[in-house]
Every structure is written in C-alpha cells, then in structure tokens.
Write a structure and sequence with these properties.
about 575 residues; seven-stranded antiparallel β-sheet; six-stranded antiparallel β-sheet; about 40% helix; globular; binds 2-acetamido-2-deoxy-beta-D-glucopyranose
C-alpha cells in the first residue's frame, strides 16, 4: 500500500499508468509470496507440533500412537516402550508382562496368548501360543467336566486342567518377527515394579479373598499372616527373579533351562503331570489371518482354535440388516435386539465347529471357515424370524463354562503397525496353583475343552473365545479385542455395531451395556447400575449374575487417535 502511493505521485500519466500496473503486479506477487510463506510456516509448525496439533477432541486426544491395556499402569508401560522406539509388538509384550502383576488373576507367563499383528504395510500375521494338552494327560479328564455352569472353587482348583504354558514362546515368536528393542528391555519396567511393590489396585483386590484356601494365598500374606487387601503394598519378588532370568537368558530358560526344572518340579509336587519334555517341545504357531469385509473395512482375526470365526459370523449376520443408525423407537429396538439375540444363540450352537486345525480334519476346519462366509450368514439370517424365538434345543448349544481370567491389549504404533493380543490363564488365578519356586501362577486352560469336545490329544490347543482383531480401511485402523470368555464375541460385536454402524464414539460404544446369551440360551442383560455398586452388593453376599466382559480398543481415523480401555475393569489407555 505504501509503495503503491509512493510511485503514484511520480511520473507522467502514461508511464504512471504502466507503473501502476507494474506495482499492482508486484503487490500481487508479494501478497502471494507472503501467503505462501505463512502457509509454509503453518505447515512447518503443524509438522513440528504433531505432539498435539489439532487433536483437541477429548475423544481422540493422541496424534501418534496409543496403547489400551486393561489398567492405566500397563497402558503407560506400553506407551513408554513405543516412545523409546519400540514396535507395536514390543509395547504389547511389555504391557502384557505388566498385566501379569497388575491383574495376576487374569493373565501371566503361566498361560497362553494369541496375537494378531498388522505390519506398517498392512500385512497381517497370527501368532498362536495358546496352551497345549500335556503328554501324560489323564485321558478320562473330560469325564470330570462339571455338570453345571456354576463357578466352583473345588472344581477349578484341580491340577489336572493345567495346559503347557505358551505365553513366553509367543512373545519370542512375535519379538523375533517384529521386535525393535532388545528382548530384556521389555521386561525391565515389570521387574522393577514387581520388586519394589505397589498398592494393590481395586480390581486385583476384589479377587484376593476368593483364593484364601489356595496356594495363591502365599502371594498375599502380611507379616501377621493376614490376607492383603486393596491399597496394601504387594511385591512379587519370586516372579521378578524369574522374569529377570528370562530377560537375561532368553525364552529357553523357561522351556529348557533352570526355570523349566523348577516349574515342572513344583507342578509335580502339586500332583500335576506336566514334564520337562512337554515344555521343551512346545512351539508357537505363526499363520495367516482370516478376514471378512465389514463396510469399508477388512477385519482380520485369528483362525481356530480362536473365537474369531464366531465373532465374524455374528457381525456378518447383523450387517445384512443394513442398519446405519441406532434404533431409536421402542419397536425398532425390540426388533434389533431380537435379531441380535437370535444371532448369538445360533453362534453359540456353532461353537462346536471351532477346534485346533492341527488336530482336525481339513473338512472340519473348512466348516469353521464357512462360518465366516457372507453366504453362510445370509442363510442363517433367512432362518431368523422377526416374530419369535425358539426352544433352546433348536440352537443345539451344549453346556460350557464361563471363566473370567483373561486380558486384552490393543496397540497402534506411529508407523501404522498394530497389535491386537489376548492372553489368558483361563479362570481367575487359573488353576489357583502357584509354583512357589518361580512365582508363576498356572493356568487351567484345558477346561476350555469342556462342552466343546468329547476327546483331545496331547499337543492339542483347546478351543477359545478370544478374538483379537484389526480392522483396516483406506483411511482408518481399528484395533480391538476383549476379555470375558463366552462374552468376548458378543461384547466385541456390540462395540463394533455401536461404533461403526450407529455412529457412537468408541468410548460410548464400549460403555454400552452388553447383551449376552448363556449356554442355556438364557438372555442376560448387563445391569445399568455402576460396576462399583454391583461389586458392593456382591460383597454384601448378594448373588449377582456376572458380567465380566471388557473391550480395549485403539482407533486412528484421520490424524487423531482415540484409545479406550474398559471402565468395567477400571482401565485407562495411554498415548502421545
Ligand atoms: C497323571 O497321570 C496318571 C497316569 O496316566 C493318571 O492316572 C493321573 O490321573 C494323572 N493326573 C493328573 C492330575 O492328570
Ligand atoms: C482365610 O483363612 C484363614 C485360615 O483358614 C482364616 O483364619 C481367615 O479368616 C480367612 N480369611 C478370609 C479373608 O477369608
Ligand atoms: C476355606 O476353608 C474353610 C475350611 O475348610 C472354610 O470354612 C472357608 O469357607 C473357606 N474359605 C474360602 C474363602 O473358601
Ligand atoms: C535343551 O537344552 C539342551 C542343553 O542345553 C540342548 O542340548 C537341547 O537341544 C535343548 N532342547 C531343546 C528342545 O531346545
Ligand atoms: C482374505 O481371505 C481370503 C481367503 O478367505 C484370502 O484369499 C485373501 O487373500 C484375504 N485377504 C487379505 C487382504 O488378506
Ligand atoms: C428415529 O431416527 C430417525 C432418523 O434418524 C427419525 O426420522 C425418527 O423420527 C426417529 N424416531 C424416533 C421415534 O425418535
Ligand atoms: C498352525 O495353524 C494353521 C492354521 O490354523 C494350521 O493349519 C496348522 O495345522 C497349525 N500348525 C501347527 C503345527 O499347529
Ligand atoms: C501338530 O500335530 C502333530 C500330531 O498330529 C504333533 O506331532 C505336532 O507336535 C503338532 N504341532 C504343534 C506345533 O502343536
């Protein structure tokens, strides 16, 4: 503006005219350049300030990466590993190790694990290191499966149900394929925490009174021989030593070294039949994922013996009803839930098709594959009447047990790679047998055969409900999975329907009360009362139907990331 006027006052009218044009051009160019400059500066700072650029929405606060484990502490340990340059797999392993002391009733190195890993190019692999049947198993074991679904301490305490632990071989395979940090780095935060001790978190504390008569009790005694409770400091020093040995000597220490010897000796003293040979011959299985199409997404999940095929069947049935908003009128809701419950009943009846492919005929495994096909779901949908439900026999379900000891971790790393991993020792505190010389809590995973199979073979992996999944579209990644045994497929399906189809935020979708159909075809509705109130009522001796489903998920859509751990387990995600 100043330059323009200055020139205007100078020359002849012609040259002035020419000058005016020249100046106008010049000004345009300058303004243009200035604009470009501002643009470049904004772009530069946006790039530089990526730590928290426009991710101000409390629903999706992270811009680079996130971890959703079932406790805040373990989510943070996973996040710290990512920030140190660790891969999604590194973070997942560190978060799982942490969970083995923050929620030792749910998971640990005496159990098994199934990973679904998507690398940064979008390629997906499954690592299955679920427990296996030991060689010297009592072949009549399944005759002692319980006759009711009632949870029974006496029954679950049985040493006969201990499977050969696969957890550490699974970490090893995952780390070998995808690890960036050193193996020992992943163990450090948990070793420190286990040694120094920490206040017992609420959720762990809830489970302690229930193990008073078991060998787990040793972990929770104060100086006067009383049981510790929520808020008291607990240390896991034996386990810290064991983790340190595995960190320094590698996985073989667990499978064919000093820890193997101590562990087997403890199991045999407790009356179990696992041998050194069972441990030494344990192998993880790395395979391709199965997948289905869900709108714009491809959903990847593990093949049998995982429950991924059951989850995909439920979703494939429901997607055919083409709902793209939440049912709001009462009659719409009734119809939606009716169809969903029918889908769950049918899915329960088809669980018998899920078993370890290494011990099944190809035809049998193909049947499980068929469950994931759209055409199969279309046929099922045609069988669902909008009018009424059927007698339980119609769905052909068999009795199976509800167990509660499982955990899930979802991780999304900066490079777009993702891990969805579910780990378990089966029931709360597994077999409730502690190996005193190693601090390891042993699983009772073999009871997962109950109601699902009439026989099994040494080396076989029991059928599972675990369904760690990764959904990928052109612009979005959703990492999701859950814990809660039979409730895993319905709970994960419910979150996906509420989020992807009904437009709820990830958090709202996770918070939505779940509907569950038990193995007797009885429909169970999650109470709307707060979890603490329900727990409090139970503490007063009321018998309350259990809802122990949890879903932990991470989603990247656009440039911001949302990550939620289930409030039902007082979880919290972490990211940056
Ligand atoms: C251990 O093996 C023996 C011999 O096969 C069998 O009789 C016993 O029931 C087994 N014990 C357990 C706990 O599985
Ligand atoms: C645990 O068992 C001991 C001995 O059997 C008993 O004295 C104590 O009251 C029990 N504690 C709880 C919390 O049940
Ligand atoms: C522990 O065992 C004692 C005696 O056998 C019994 O009275 C008590 O109820 C049991 N406690 C638990 C928590 O199961
Ligand atoms: C176990 O360790 C021994 C000695 O360290 C070695 O000879 C053997 O090959 C190992 N076995 C397995 C299955 O790794
Ligand atoms: C999805 O699964 C089918 C087999 O059912 C396979 O042929 C295909 O390659 C898979 N797609 C992806 C993207 O992995
Ligand atoms: C349900 O939602 C649709 C659109 O989303 C709306 O047209 C309809 O009026 C709503 N019905 C009720 C009962 O709120
Ligand atoms: C590994 O998993 C694949 C796919 O589920 C299965 O076909 C194969 O039999 C398994 N192999 C072993 C050795 O368990
Ligand atoms: C697969 O099954 C065969 C027997 O059918 C068994 O020898 C082998 O160990 C199994 N592999 C794994 C990894 O479980």
């Amino acid at each position: 503006m100043f330059a323009y006027q200055d020139f205007e006052g100078a020359n002849t009218s012609r040259s002035r005219h020419r000058n005016v044009i020249l100046v106008r051009v010049l000004v345009c160019v300058l303004v243009g350049l200035a604009g470009l400059g501002v643009g470049v500066v904004i772009w530069y700072y946006k790039g530089k300030n990526d730590d928290n650029p426009s991710c101000k929405d409390p629903d999706r606060p992270f811009s680079k990466a996130a971890v959703a484990a079932d406790s805040e502490k373990c989510s943070e340990i996973g996040r710290d590993i990512l920030q140190k340059g660790g891969s999604a797999v590194d973070a997942a392993i560190a978060a799982l190790l942490c969970t083995s002391i923050i929620n030792p009733q749910s998971a640990g190195i005496g159990g098994g694990v199934i990973f679904t890993v998507m690398d940064s190019s979008g390629k997906v692999k499954i690592i299955n290191s679920r427990e296996t049947v030991p060689r010297n198993v009592n072949s009549d074991l399944l005759k002692s499966c319980p006759k009711t679904t009632e949870w029974s301490m006496e029954w679950t305490q049985e040493r006969s149900w201990i499977g050969v632990p696969g957890e550490i071989r699974g970490y090893e395979a995952a780390h070998r394929l995808y690890g960036k940090l050193k193996w020992a780095e992943l163990f450090k935060p948990t070793i420190k925490l286990a040694r120094e001790g920490f206040p017992i978190p609420y959720y762990q504390g809830q489970h302690i009174p229930r193990i008073n008569n078991t060998s787990i009790r040793e972990l929770y005694l104060d100086k006067n021989g009383n049981l510790l409770k929520t808020g008291d400091t607990v240390k896991f020093e034996k386990l810290a030593d064991t983790l340190e040995t595995i960190a320094n000597e590698g996985p073989d220490a667990f499978y064919n070294g000093t820890i193997a010897k101590d562990l087997i000796s403890d199991i045999q003293k407790a009356g179990g039949n696992l041998t050194l040979q069972d441990l030494a011959s344990y192998q993880a299985n790395v395979t391709d994922a199965w997948n289905i199409t869900l709108g714009d997404y491809r959903m990847y999940f593990p093949p049998p013996p995982s429950g991924g095929a059951i989850l995909s069947l439920i979703l494939n049935i429901m997607k055919g009803y083409k709902m793209n908003s939440e049912p709001n009128a009462t009659d719409e809701k009734i119809l939606f839930y009716h169809r969903y419950i029918e889908a769950l009943k049918i899915a329960n009846g088809l669980k018998k098709h899920i078993s370890d492919p290494n011990f099944s005929s190809d035809e049998f495994t193909q049947m499980a594959k068929n469950l994931t096909e759209d055409s199969f779901a279309d046929n099922i949908r045609n069988l669902i009447s909008s009018e009424k439900t059927h007698d339980p026999q119609y769905y052909g379900d068999t009795l199976h047990l509800d167990s509660i000891g499982t955990t899930h971790v979802s991780v999304l790393a900066e490079d777009g790679s993702a891990v969805s991993v579910t780990s378990s020792i089966n029931d709360e505190f597994g077999s409730k047998i502690l190996s005193p010389s190693t601090g390891i809590i042993l699983n009772n995973q073999l009871s997962d055969f109950c109601g699902r199979a009439n026989s099994f073979s040494p080396g076989e992996r029991p059928p599972s409900n675990m369904a760690p999944s990764v959904l990928k579209s052109q612009s979005k990644t959703l990492v999701i999975g859950g814990s809660g045994a039979e409730m895993i497929p319905p709970a994960v399906a419910s979150v996906l329907m509420n989020h992807l189809w009904f437009g709820k935020s990830l958090k709202e979708a996770i918070d939505t009360p779940v509907v569950h159909v038990d193995s007797q075809s009885e429909v169970k509705l999650e109470p709307k009362l707060e979890k603490d109130v329900v727990d409090g009522l139970e503490a007063k001796g009321h018998k309350i139907a259990k809802f122990y489903n949890t879903v932990n998920a991470v989603e990247k859509a656009g440039s911001c990331i949302s990550a939620w751990s289930d409030e039902r387990k007082k979880g919290k995600a972490a990211g940056y």
